[in-house]
Amino acid sequence: MNPPKILIVDDEQAAVRNLQHILVKEGCEVIATQSGQNALKLVEQHSFDLVLTDLRMPNVDGMEVLRRVKQVSPDTEVVMITGYATVNSAVSAMKMGAYHYVIKPYKLDEVRKVVREALEKRRLRQENAELKERLAKAQGVTILTEDPAMQKLLRTAREVAQSDCSVLISGESGTGKELLARYIHEHSPRAAGPLKAVNCGVFTEELLANELFGHEKGAFTGADRHKIGLIESAADGTMFLDEVTEMTLAMQVKLLRVLQEKEVLPLGATEPVKVNVRFLAATNRDLAQMVKEGGFRQDLYFRINVMHLHLPPLSERPRDIRLLAQFFLDRFSAVMRKPVKELAPEALERLQEHSFPGNVRELENIIERAVVLASGSCIETAHLPEDLGAETFRASAAESDEGAIPSLDDQERKYIEWVLAQTGQNKSKAAEILGINRVSLWRKLKKYHGRW
Fold first, then answer.
1. d(CA 350, CA 358)
2. Which residues of the chain have pLDDT under 50?
3. For labeling, which of 102, 381, 403, 418 is most exposed (least CB within 10 Å)?
4. Do 191 and 302 fall within a single domain?
5. What count of Cα atoms within 13 Å lies in the side-chain half-sphere of residue 288?
6. Domain carrying residue 329
């Protein structure tokens, strides 16, 4: 196992020397700098497990270092070093993603403890991600649905997979756009080839170009070896560009050339490399509107949008909540080796009453949390977030009795009555629109009217 790689950033030479001495003795590989500006370059050139940075530094401070680290490498942990006068700023840094902070003058045991805990958190997160990936590969790509519109979409995706055309996948964050891309790849003639994926929104223009196109040895300072880009490494397979709308216009020009000429030019190279790759792209934004506003090139839009598949939000497929919840429950109980087998009816009802603004990803996170908390074989409502299903809205006092602000029960009763009226008193249809089952609707009607 490689030793943890740590970056130390502090404008005080003595502080850098002391920290470096401590961490090297802990078995870490350490790179140190007294310049925040130099630190920004280092985090783009190297992959660090942990960054310890002073908060107050000239020109580029610790907050800027934190922002860049989280932009370039979101999984890298950051520990802030601060004086008593800037503790509030350190707490603000934690809200931005820093793991913890150490107050000067610090004790050596305290530094060791914080560093060990930060590295352990990163290690566990990596192991969990690897375990999930192995489980997913063993099971193949699974998209579960009982929703007719989703079933039609999957049929179309399987048909599209047989061609070699570019596909644009749209949908809100958390709907499963990358999963659909993997589904298309696995059902395509290229399934035996690699699938390479990149999130265009987490890299600067220079780093994204390096990731996609690669570079020759000596192309820039620190380029001590030849690097093959993701597009070239996806030969005979599929390249998935997530959040493609986050590309700069300059990067869009470079990508357009790849799509047109079927070749890439690594940084520092003089001759292009021919590539045989299929492209899939995804976005949660209105790409056509971006083209109208000049934020996305029209010629590239037509290149990547040969076929368009739109994933509906989970709120439009309420019948899938139970199905997906059980799937995630089975998966996480296996990963965590816990005997959790089912959801209590009350817990399932709470889930079905929730609007899921975070879509399938939110449901996945809720179930993972519930499995962590569950001690028996069943997930109860106590294992779900307390605010689950607590929807917020604006109520008009003019619509309430006696001009008073209506209660939540009054608003819910009126909304249920309105939905029933719109469906011609079809309770099955009303329950589907409300995102609950018929039993839940029956309970609410009995509560408000004493009848079914």
1. 16
2. 138, 390-402, 451-452
3. 403
4. yes
5. 4
6. 315-383
